[in-house]
Sequence to fold (163 residues):
Amino acid sequence: MMPMFAVDTGSLEALHDIVVPPSVSIWPATTGWYWMIGLSAVIVGASSIWAVARWQHNAYRRAALDELERLEAQAGVSGDTIRLIAELIKRVAMMSCSRAQIASLSGAEWLTFLDTTIGTSDFTQGPGRQLLDVYTPTPQPVAAPLIDLMRHWIIHHQAPSTC
Fold:
């Protein structure tokens, strides 16, 4: 026997509304994601601090390159351009090593120091030898290879371990 008030399962009265699941959150829910986000923030922060410190540390190189460019532009005008370039390089070297160690260097000893800081022999056996004639009474015209060598040295020099 069938109950009297039984509802027919095929009728529209037996239908219910569709249950919609809750929306997915944009924020990750697991702890691993929190660790990944925190680690990424630390890495980005540390990299930014390192980049700013490196930029500030190399400010003397940028200033020296600007000065070298100015000297290169007036190379034909001034007879003492080689002396000015030599002074510029000496000042740059004093930024990477102690003043007491650099200020006393001259002649072949100075050229050897410059060679050791970039790992070449372009100063003792190449265009850098022109720096030995800095204080001659008749200054030589500045050679383009010397300017290029100075630019290379300013960009790539590393302080030797003895500094």
